[in-house]
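Researcher: We're teaching a course module on how sequence relates to structure. For the next exercise, students receive a sequence and then see the predicted structure as C-alpha cells, so they can try to spot secondary structure elements on their own. Here is the exercise chain.
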Amino acid sequence: MPAISRRASSLGTENAFVVLAEVNALARTGKDIISFCIGQPDFPAPVNVQEAAIRAIRGGKHGYTPSAGIDELRAAAAKYLGAMRGGLPIRPEDVVVGAGAKPFIAYAILSSTDHGAGDEVIYPNPGFPIYESQIVACGAKPVPIHLHEARDFSFDPAELERRITPKTKLLILNYPHNPTGGLLSRKELEQIAAILAKHPQVWVYADEIYSRLAYSGEFFSIAQVPGMYERTIISDGASKTWAMTGWRIGFTSNPLLAPVLTRWITNTDSCASQISQWAALEAIEGPQDAAAMMKASFLERRDLIVGLLNKVPGVSCRLPGGAFYAWPNVTEACRMIGAPDSEEFRKRLLNEAGVALLADIHFGSRVPGEGQHVRFSYAASKEMIEKGVARMAEFIRTNTRKAA
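Model: And here is the predicted structure for the students to work with:
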C-alpha cells in the first residue's frame, strides 16, 4: 500500500468540526444537546445579498472569473478595507478575492517562508488552530507567543521581542481574537510596530475577519501604524460581518504580495465562486442595517453570557472585546468536580449535561500558569445561552457534591 506523506500525516484540523461530529452523533441517539461549538453567525445572510446571488445565477454569471476576483468586487473591497482602516490608500489591484479568508493563511506563509529552510512564523497561542497546522504543513517552524488572561488575552510586547530571530519571516496577529475574544489596542499595536521596525525581514499577517465585531471603540489595524502598511497582509471577508460563512468569500490586501497571492489562487482554486462574488459586492455596497443588527445582537449576548458565567460556581470570565466568543476560566470548576483538566471537563459536560463546548487544548498547547479554559461561541439565541449556562452550573453543583 502506498504511504501517506509526512506532511499530510502532520496536518492538523479544526476541532470545532470534530466536536460537532460528536454532537451530531449524540443527537442522533435522541440526546438533547445545546451546542456552543461552531463560530459562525446564527443569522441568515441579508435578503439583499441573497437576491444579488439569485440575480447572478439568472444573469448567467456561472463561469470562471479572473483569479484575483471580479473587478467590481476588488474595487468595492479596496474602498471598504481602506475606509475601515483610517483611510488607507488601498487600490483595487492590491486586493485579491479568495474562497474564504482561510486559504490566505497558507498563501501568506507560503509567500514569506521557504520550505525546510528553518524559517520561523510567530503566531498567537491560544489561537485559531489552522495557523499552527499550516505553518507546519508549509515547512516552516511554528513559534507560539502566549496570550495572557491578566492582559485580557493579549501578549507582552517584550515577549515578542525575545521571540524574534533572524529566521523570523512572518508574525500572525488576529484581532478581535478567536478563541478568546481579545482585542489588541492601538497602543499595543504601536508597541508591536516599534519592535518590528528593528526587524525589516518580518511580514505581518493581520487576520481581521472579525473587524466589524469590535465592541470597544473604533477598530484599528496595525496597517494604520506608520511604516506598517506595505509589510502587512490585511485579511478580511464576508463570512462574519454578513453571515456568509458558507458562501466562501474572503478578501486580502497587500500592495506587494497581491500578484503572488493571485498566483497561489490560480494554482489552487482557480477563482472564488462568481455567484458568491456578486453577492459579496452587494453585501459591501448595499444597506448595512442587517450587519449593524447582528453586531448589536452579539453585543447583547456577550453581556448576557459573561454575566451568567461569572455566577457559575468555580468559573470566572473576562469581558471579551470583540468577535462572538467567551473564554471562561474553569480551573476551580475542574477541581470542584474532580476533572483533571478542561478537556475532561468538556467531555463530561457534553455527555452528562448535554452542553457542547471546546476546550483550550483545541486551540494550541495550554499556556503555562494560565489554568484551564473552555470556549463558548455565543452565536446562539439568548434562550439557548441561558439554558446552556444553567445546565453547566447544575452540572458543577451536582458533581461537586458527588466528589465531596
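Model: If you want an answer key for the exercise: The mean pLDDT is 96. Residues 84 and 218 are 9 Å apart (CA to CA).
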